[in-house]
Amino acid sequence: MEFSAAVVPGHAPLPAVSPGLRGALHRCGPGTPPLRARVRDVLREWIVEGRLAPGMRLYEQDVAAALGISRVPIREAVRLLESEGYVEVRGRQVRVRSLDPVSVAHLFDVCETLEALAARQAARSITPAGARRLRELLEIGRAGLAGGGRPVSDGVNMSLHEEISRLAANEVLDGVLAPLRGRVQCLLRHSDDGHRIFDEHAAITEAVATGDAERAAELAARHMRATGQEILANLPG
């Protein structure tokens, strides 16, 4: 599998790459993740932040030149991104996954069930330290939203979901949810009701923190359903 090597006039430019990022990609040593994983993380961040738009075609030579590395780790990173659902590979073409309404609906159907399971299991095993951490994240999100920092608030919201998964202490569930959450995060820019999301997270946090497993599961499912419906209504086209 590889990107097209042809130079295509007029294709969209990649985001600017800082010398610091290039240096980090060239760094190696004990405990350093493989280069393919670091490249995957860079491309995934660009996709999540919307700097690589849905449907945008990626070219191997452009990515390699931008990051200052060879093409081999680019190809390996693309395989990882494809397995996580961020890109589509058709023959020699690689594109950022498009916002297909059916796929988005299916994504939220699955997340509704899995996030409810995570909330239920987290509530059943909650500790005082875990409850305190959830409430701390909630307050950070509240401050970000009050200050107009929606991107900050979105990041905290995802951290809250991740913390609930961690508290559930289910490695299989966490492994399945992690890439799905990344795809959900890509879609949050199509949600314009940050206050609704925060209020729902506050209710979920309280249910988990107080050990109310069934209410936590119900609220988590309702939250994912409402978010999915809002995003579907706001998708372009």
UniProtKB/TrEMBL annotation:
Where in the numbering of this chain does the HTH gntR-type domain appear? Answer: 33-99
Which SUPFAM superfamilies does the UniProt record give? GntR ligand-binding domain-like (SSF48008), Winged helix' DNA-binding domain (SSF46785)
Keyword flag Transcription: yes
Alphabetically, the GO molecular function entries are: DNA binding; DNA-binding transcription factor activity
Keywords for the protein's UniProt record, in alphabetical order: DNA-binding, Transcription, Transcription regulation
Matching Gene3D superfamilies: GntR ligand-binding domain-like (1.20.120.530), Winged helix-like DNA-binding domain superfamily/Winged helix DNA-binding domain (1.10.10.10)
Q: Which Pfam families match?
A: FCD (PF07729), GntR (PF00392)
Q: Which InterPro entries match?
A: GntR_C, TF_FadR/GntR_C, Tscrpt_reg_HTH_GntR, WH-like_DNA-bd_sf, WH_DNA-bd_sf
Does this entry carry the keyword Transcription regulation?
A: yes
- Which domain of life does this protein belong to? Bacteria
Q: Which CDD domains match?
A: WHTH_GntR
Q: Mind telling me which PROSITE patterns this protein's record contains? A: HTH_GNTR
The protein, known as: HTH gntR-type domain-containing protein
Q: Specify the taxonomic lineage.
A: Bacteria, Bacillati, Actinomycetota, Actinomycetes, Mycobacteriales
